Amino acid sequence: MAQETDNSDREEIVVIGQGLPETPAAPAYSERKLEREQILSAPSGRIEEALGAVAGVQQFRRSDSRSSNPSAQGVTLRALGGNATSRALVLLDGVPMSDPFFGYIPFAALLPEQLRGVTVTRGGGSGPFGAGALAGTIALTSADLATIGRISGSVLVNDRGGTEASASLGTDLGQGFVVASGRWDRGEGFFTTPRSQRVAASAPAAFESVSGQIRAVAPLTETLEMQARLLAFDDQRTLRFEGADSSASGQDASIRVVSRGAWQVDALAYVQARNFSNIVISSTRFVKVLDQSNTPTTGIGGKLELRPPVGPDHVLRFGVDYRRSEGELQEQPFSAFTGNLRARRRAGGSTSDFGVFLEDDWTLGDLILTGGIRADRTTIKNGFFREENAAGAVTADNQFADRSDWTVTWRGGGLFRPTRQLAVRAAAYRGLRLPTLNELYRPFVVFPVVTQANAALDVEKLKGFEAGIDWTPMDGLAFSATAFGNRVENAIANVTLTPTLRQRQNLPAIDARGLEFGARVSRGQISFDGTLAYTDAKVDGSGQSLALDGNRPPQTPRLAAAATLAWKPMEEGMLSLSLRHVGKQFESDQETDVLPAATTLGAFARIPLRDGFALVLRGENLLDETIVTRNSRGAIDLGVPRTVWAGVRYGF
To answer: 571 CB contacts (<8 Å, ≥6 apart)?
Structure first.
């Protein structure tokens, strides 16, 4: 009898492996969810393409993480771009994933096979998410053992000899579980340089990335759960020329404790050790002119959120969060004519953000109201730039003044359901983003253009509003429409000073107004998912930036659209076609050097074999559209050409 009672008690403990649930008012902000199947059926197999199913999600450049410089992988929403740093906050189980020094997202570190789903919140302000959610929040949620399976894996090869391999092993951990997983991608790549511009030194965009993680989830009591993760990755790439190699690497650790008792608690702590290197090759003499050899960076942070029992009609949450970044650049310029070392440079510092937040959702029948306030104390400290000549004599030794400030932001909204099929929503909000160490202290070169850092950069601040409807006329049909207006004050941009010189500066503002549409249809074996975003974004310029007034920010399209049509003719079998369109963009803030509009077609097929195995076929850019990703006064880079993959999967 005692043994039966013990077994019964153990069965009552349910391991979730996630954070606290969304609050009732979360849909008051413009949300779009991606389910696991949609993530795993991306034609490229990359998480960044899966996110592209939400029109308006964009990286600084059109290249994916196989053929771009890692430092250009900033993510933004609602055309609030023009900067390679992320203006959207990307979270993996609550942990910010942006690089502590640069602010880019290490997509090669993120394993699509391990995800349960993604929630994209466009706009919404900072709120309880934490600072950095300027343009919105992209929340990635890991899958549990039951979803992933105890053993799963895949191996694929493409028509250029590139390979992709992933594997996952999981087991029970008491009444919890532990999963170890990894992925290895490699390939000789394709020529990003058009045939007409290639020289003897031109090289295909070779890449090799490895990522692995161990995730454990275990109950501590019936209502208390601990989640822990160790993640490590290494990403090597070559871009344009032989020897133009870059690398990004990292080791992350996080621990999270979630209580689902009367007092709900979400407590999170994490540490990140990251590094970056990059070699710049002259585009005229094709020799090394800059070796950014080392960028050691550390990020630490955490969050504590409390939800007290305040009755069935309210969800009150309050708490604190913190993030600190510290790092430095180490680089050496070389003469393009002699190859001799010219100087040694070091630059860096630290930034931090401590936030306090309070938010309440109030349910009044068919009406849900939400409101919250947040205060952030930001600091920029220990900034320096030091340069020595080749003989070791100091030629520059700059120490920048420490700065700190408090910023108060708020957000509020409402969701009204006049019928079961219709929801009307509206929201207004504010947010902020602290300049990255990269923007403050690191100059960079995309030969022959030099971009200077600026240690005097101020915090970016967002003001936004939106209104929309969600209509579900029947099961399997869902439509949404949103109108929004966002204004980023003190927007950080690379401002052109001369044809070969730019500097990071705070623009007075970037204004973006637009419309977003979404549709989902599921009828029997056929399903459709589509989104469209139209945005009119303009620079508000004055002073040194007066010439930019009214211009569209760089790398910002007016129109973006995505659509996927899927057919499931059998259990575990699937065929899908994915269409992606991005409108015309400008390379620079001068509205010169056009990146033409591009429309690509992708395909995915999963054909079940036997005993859990499946044949997988994928096609990227099947119509072989020319995708211009960079245009520097006629010097062109191209995105992925037609690429066909074939392989097998087991367990998913």
So the answer is: 608
Query: How big is the chain, counted in residues?
Result: 652
pLDDT tens for each residue of 17-62 = 888 999 999 999 999 999 999 999 999 999 999 999 999 999 988 9
Q: How far is CA 252 from CA 47, 158, 213, 232, 273, in A?
A: 19, 31, 9, 6, 6
d(CA 131, CA 355): 8
d(CA 19, CA 221): 16
Q: Taking Cα atoms as reference points, which of 51, 56, 55, 37 lies closest to residue 90?
A: 51
Q: Rounded to the nearest 5°, which phi and psi values hold at 51?
A: -65, -25
What was the pLDDT predicted at 354?
A: 96
Contacts of 412 (CB under 8 A, 6+ apart): 369, 370, 371, 372, 427, 428, 429
Task: Please name the amino acid found at residue 468.
Answer: G
Question: SS in 3 state form for 366-409?
Answer: CEEEEEEEEEEEEEEEEEEEEEEECCCCEEEEEECCCEEEEEEE
Of the CA atoms within 13 Å of residue 489, those in its CB half-sphere come to 7
User: What are the distances in angstroms from CA 557 to CA 579, 586, 620?
Assistant: 17, 8, 21
Nearby residues of 475 by Cβ (< 8 Å), 6 or more positions away: none
Q: What is the residue whose two structure tokens read 């393409």?
A: 49
Q: What global pTM score does this model have? A: 0.94
Q: What is the pLDDT of residue 82?
A: 66
Structure tokens at 199: 């020289």
